[in-house]
Amino acid sequence: MANGDGDAIVIVERVLQLLDEGRFSATYKHALLTALLDLCVEGADAHGAPPQMLTTRQIAEKVIAVYWPHVRVWKVSAPLLRQMNDTRQIVGSDTILGWIHAFRQRVELAGGATAPVVRARALDPVGWNELLDKVEWRLIEMPLPKLQRVGGQDVGWLYRIGWNDHDARASRAAVRAYQRGQPSPFNNAVHLMPGVGMAFARLHAVLRPFLQHHWAEKVASLNAQEVPQAGLHEFLFGVERSSLEPVREGLMQLQAGKCFYCDGRLDRGAVHVDHFLPWARHPDDALANLVAADAVCNGDKRDFLASTGHVERWRERMQTQHPLLEQMATLARWDVGADRVLGAARAMYLALPGETRLWAGRKRWEILENPRLQLALA
Ligand SMILES: [Zn+2]
Fold first, then answer.
1. Strand partners, 293
2. How far is the CA of 275 from the centre of ligand 1 (A)?
3. End-of-domain residue from the set 160, 182, 207
4. Cα 268 to middle of ligand 1, angstroms
5. Whole domain around residue 315: which residue ranges?
6. What are 272-303's pLDDT values in tens digits?
7. Most CB contacts within 10 A, which of 24, 66, 335, 360?
8. H/E run at residue 160
9. Are residues 127 and 261 in the same domain?
10. Are residues 130 and 200 in the same domain?
11. Angle between helices 172-179 and 125-141 (to 10 degrees)
12. 266: CA distance to ligand 1 center in Å?
């Protein structure tokens, strides 16, 4: 399954079917599918091949990351967007969103500023682990065993897990023992079915926006809107630029005051923090994915992938300046995320068709150079 394009279309249709199946009263399946997609990309090896197995821990971490922006204040009249179709409010609720909201509030009240998820975990590691334990447990209990059920039947094309719902192997006690590193009958492996990882990695650029669109529509309907309001999509999935302030200066110094892309001198008052892998493709504020750029380069690059030469310099920075990145991360209480971002870069670049044009600089485009990319990303 899923080696050719025909199989890729089959996967898309199956994802659609899961989304249209109305068994979920919350947006958990959007979050879970998005998490699986992202992990398939981030886990790519040196040849761009996706992982065959994920863990419930990794999935929980990713689910928190994808929900992170959603628990901000939406607007004064409706501070938090509803993502469940019962009467429960998110605030204070015993739900994944309720826990994420409480943790984010606590971290931001203590730090006095908005914090990207990569920073929050460093600011409050104990609270982060508690949150992770709870979210992981809830995913094991409910969305993971139920996601693949269509019309009461388990279609099981996506992954295989070692427990069912209401299973003693995944009881709360068993999961708690596993989380404490004690002997437990619980096994955290989520085995992707053959071909799924490859199809997800290849279709990532299409499936991710598609899931977001579906997700925004669901949120709009849960919040009594006919169609997604202007700004809703951006609120849920856009970048929170203000939260990158604490690393701006450090990135500029790392680049000796020059723009990462054009090497021009950076004007201290107008330094932009750019996501090397575009946010729309890989929403990740990890230091490994951030570069300092001037307004022109940042504005011109938008959501495009940067050219081969930029990838080479980016990888070189990752290798030669890794100690400095680590130091910066410690000071700013941030996350370097080198493995994750490198995995995503491999999955994205190494799957591009030969004639793809990449952004090289202001109004300049270059055809990708595959052997050089392979070497740079090895
Ligand atoms: Zn520039």
1. 272
2. 14
3. 207
4. 13
5. 242-376
6. 999 999 999 999 999 999 999 999 999 999 99
7. 66
8. strand 159-161
9. no
10. yes
11. 140
12. 8
